[in-house]
């Protein structure tokens, strides 16, 4: 049997190059890999609401932004199912059943939840929905019997939690669910692309992102302002690669062909790094090179996005049809889940017959 992919993003803003390098580019490539039979890509609006409950308009506005970014990157509705989480009520139902299989202390130990609670200053009062979102994410994955979840490494604890839920469910109720594996990008630099300021993670609230839809001039401006080695002052100074954002981005995006095209004095990134560390190579030259590399990667995405923006109803229609299709798959899994959990009363003729037999004798006695 072919493998099944499920992945997704929260619609809280436009997608940036961190999303792209960490997972989106990989998902687009997987569309051409014949070992994957089905690919489901979900806009996780229900999850976005777990920490934006007071701002539904933000989530609503960003559904189309994420959909445009997906399509612009090359996710193809003929080869993958693009859908919106809230339109699949089976996911909420499954979450309720899974809640019986997870302890509060297990959720408290989830490292991603822990750090997000800190980030959002939720320590004093965590919304229950937010606290439980790893359970909801397990539903997203297992409702489609996904074998493979292509995401960044920050999602590892989520996948582990999903695997535990699957094992617990299957051992309690019988083998219905599939244990998913995480699929990380091969390129380590892609895994957690820092913000342009060198801060750990690209995030909209820190204002340190390069968005996929960004105009060429803005990309250039952002690249030129990127954090490098603060001790590399004169061109002749030896430079350090450690925490040097420009080189991390080059690790993520540049290929040997880019050197022939934009910087023929070097054959590859190793030669460029070597020169930088030795001294005599200025930041400006490296940044100009990175700008060329990024422009080449992002230009086709931006152009396609502008094309797609001309027919917004068509994009909503792709999501509507995808959601319909996704719902069929989730509904099939839910009917197996309900049968395994013995809550399929009205479909179970044997139950009705056996209850009839139980009371049949009593009438005779009266
Ligand atoms: N938690 C993911 C993120 O923040 C989004 C997401 C929701 C997801 N459900 C998922 C990812 C299921 C993979 C599988 O980016």
What does the model show?
This protein is mainly alpha-helical and 366 residues long. 56% of the residues lie in helices and 7% in strands. It has helices at residues 17-30, 45-49, 56-73, 89-98, 104-108, 111-119, 128-131, 133-142, 156-173, 188-191, 216-224, 245-253, 256-262, 269-278, 283-309, 312-340, 349-365, and strands at residues 3-9, 36-43, 81-84, 148-150, 181-183. A three-stranded parallel β-sheet has the order 1-2-3. Strands 4-5 form a two-stranded parallel sheet. Helix 3 (56-73) packs across helix 15 (283-309), helix 4 (89-98) packs parallel to helix 16 (312-340) and helix 11 packs antiparallel against helix 15. The longest helix has 29 residues, at 312-340. The protein is elongated. The chain starts with a strand and ends with a helix. The model has no long low-confidence stretch (mean pLDDT 94). Bound molecules: tryptophan (TRP).
């Amino acid at each position: 049997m072919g493998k099944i992919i499920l992945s997704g993003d929260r619609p809280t803003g436009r997608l940036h190059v961190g999303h792209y390098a960490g997972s989106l580019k990989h998902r687009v490539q997987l569309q051409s890999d014949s070992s994957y039979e089905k690919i489901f890509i979900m806009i996780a609006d229900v999850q976005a609401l777990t920490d934006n409950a007071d701002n539904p308009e933000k989530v609503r506005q960003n559904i189309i932004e994420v959909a445009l970014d997906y399509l612009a990157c090359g996710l193809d509705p003929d080869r993958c199912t693009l859908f919106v989480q809230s339109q699949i009520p089976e996911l909420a139902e499954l979450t309720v059943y899974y809640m019986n299989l997870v302890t509060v202390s297990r959720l408290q130990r989830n490292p991603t939840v822990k750090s997000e609670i800190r980030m959002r200053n939720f320590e004093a009062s965590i919304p229950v929905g937010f606290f439980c979102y790893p359970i909801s994410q397990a539903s997203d994955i297992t409702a489609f019997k996904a074998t493979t979840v292509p995401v960044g490494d920050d999602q590892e604890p989520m996948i582990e939690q999903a695997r535990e839920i699957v094992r617990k469910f299957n051992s309690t109720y019988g083998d219905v669910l599939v244990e998913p594996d995480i699929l990380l990008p091969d390129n380590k630099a892609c895994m957690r692309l820092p913000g342009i300021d060198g801060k750990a993670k690209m995030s909209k609230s820190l204002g340190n992102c390069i968005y996929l839809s960004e105009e060429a001039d803005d990309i250039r401006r952002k690249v030129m302002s990127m954090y490098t080695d603060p001790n590399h002052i004169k061109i002749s100074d030896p430079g350090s690669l450690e925490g040097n954002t420009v080189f991390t981005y080059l690790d993520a995006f540049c290929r040997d062909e880019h050197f022939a095209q934009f910087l023929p004095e070097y054959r590859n990134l190793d030669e460029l790094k070597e020169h930088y560390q030795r001294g005599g190579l200025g930041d400006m030259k490296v940044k100009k090179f990175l700008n060329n590399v990024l422009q080449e990667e992002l230009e086709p995405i931006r152009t396609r996005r502008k094309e797609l923006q001309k027919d917004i109803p068509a994009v909503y229609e792709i999501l509507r049809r995808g959601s319909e299709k996704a719902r069929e798959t989730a509904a099939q899994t839910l009917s197996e889940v309900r049968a395994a959990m013995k809550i399929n009363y009205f479909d179970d003729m044997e139950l009705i017959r056996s209850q009839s037999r139980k009371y049949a004798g009593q009438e005779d006695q009266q």
